[in-house]
Design the sequence.
């Protein structure tokens, strides 16, 4: 009997030097460097460049890359017009998917598929994703779109474009850490989808549009929004233990808990947990953190032995919320970070490209014949 790997679990289709995950021990590294070190010592700009080139950059290389990002933040007026005329209430990921696809129409280099061309396009997309997402958010709220500033960091500039005021250094750094933690995560559904599209030698914008479509699904990108819904449903810390106990007794799914890969704590969740506590207390939202703390304790006590622990989505929503980001935009923020990993993986795979063409075990009829429509019942 043929073994079928449902969800492609355990199937190896390529090699990568970008990201390593050991789910049983809660290890995540980029270029062999632990995610904790990236979060503590690096920046989203540096990790993005390291992923694109497969090595740590020199100071000069990083400075040049940072200057390229700052110089490419602005988006064409045609795209701004499109964003401003999108229907109100549209799903932010639908808006992002459409905007990125349209951006490709405006790029004269869009159809070039060499690794060098893909890298140049990647730099522009990494720079422009934050501008697009902030513009969509403000347009949907009936606010004026704010132009990017070249004197702010990538993270700080996004918060400025979103909120209309310059963030504090602490806020900018916190958001930067959140982007670092989400920049890449191996062969997840959206990265695989981008590579599958790339393997046909399709253009970079089609690859990233495909990835956005995959990320949009609630089983991939929408979990942190669902965590916030759960917190609002719990209401206050005193109700948290009873709430989560009932969920566990009824064997209901708990958003932000469990992961296809990790059978121990997601190392990204450990980093975010510490920052979430500090920020929640400063912003007067300690209730959220206390609820999460109680839920985590009960979950670990009850089902931790089964390899089910909080993942990165468990705490990221509270961090974003405390920074003034609406929960509907948590998944676009995921894309804002993951654009680096998507682009890097596409470029890496394209250097030794092979068309992805999986197969399926046929389980249908084998001896059927055509029946005239007048004879069908």
Sequence:
């Amino acid at each position: 009997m043929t073994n079928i790997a449902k969800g492609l679990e355990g199937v190896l289709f390529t090699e990568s030097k970008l990201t390593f995950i050991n789910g049983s021990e809660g290890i995540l590294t980029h270029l062999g460097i632990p995610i904790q070190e990236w979060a503590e010592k690096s920046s989203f700009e540096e990790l993005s460049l390291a992923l694109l080139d497969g090595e740590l950059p020199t100071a000069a290389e990083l400075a040049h890359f940072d200057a390229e990002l700052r110089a490419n933040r602005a988006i064409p007026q045609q795209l701004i017009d499109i964003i401003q005329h999108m229907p109100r209430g549209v799903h932010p990921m639908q808006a992002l998917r459409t905007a990125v696809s349209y951006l490709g129409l405006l790029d004269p280099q869009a159809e070039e598929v060499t690794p060098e061309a893909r890298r140049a396009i990647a730099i522009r997309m990494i720079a422009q994703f934050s501008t697009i997402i902030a513009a969509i958010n403000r347009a949907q709220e009936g606010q004026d779109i704010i132009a990017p500033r070249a004197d702010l960091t990538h993270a700080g500039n996004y918060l400025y474009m979103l909120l209309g005021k310059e963030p504090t250094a602490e806020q900018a750094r916190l958001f930067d850490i959140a982007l670092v933690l989400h920049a890449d995560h191996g062969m997840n559904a959206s990265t695989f989808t981008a590579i599958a599209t790339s393997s046909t030698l399709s253009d970079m914008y089609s690859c990233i549009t495909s990835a956005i479509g995959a990320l949009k699904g609630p089983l991939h990108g929408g979990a942190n929004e669902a965590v916030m819904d759960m917190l609002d449903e719990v209401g206050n810390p005193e109700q948290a233990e009873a709430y989560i106990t009932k969920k566990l007794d009824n064997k209901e799914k708990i958003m932000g808990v469990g992961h296809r890969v990790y059978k121990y704590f997601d190392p990204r969740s450990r980093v975010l947990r510490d920052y979430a506590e500090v920020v929640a207390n400063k912003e007067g939202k300690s209730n959220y953190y206390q609820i999460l703390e109680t839920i985590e304790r009960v979950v670990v006590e009850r089902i931790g032995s089964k390899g089910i622990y909080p993942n990165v989505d468990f705490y990221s929503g509270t961090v974003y919320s405390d920074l003034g980001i609406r929960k509907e935009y948590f998944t676009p923020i995921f894309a804002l970070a993951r654009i680096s990993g998507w682009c890097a993986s596409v470029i890496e795979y394209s250097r030794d490209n092979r068309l992805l063409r999986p197969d399926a075990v046929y389980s249908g009829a084998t001896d059927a014949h055509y029946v005239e429509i007048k004879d069908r019942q």
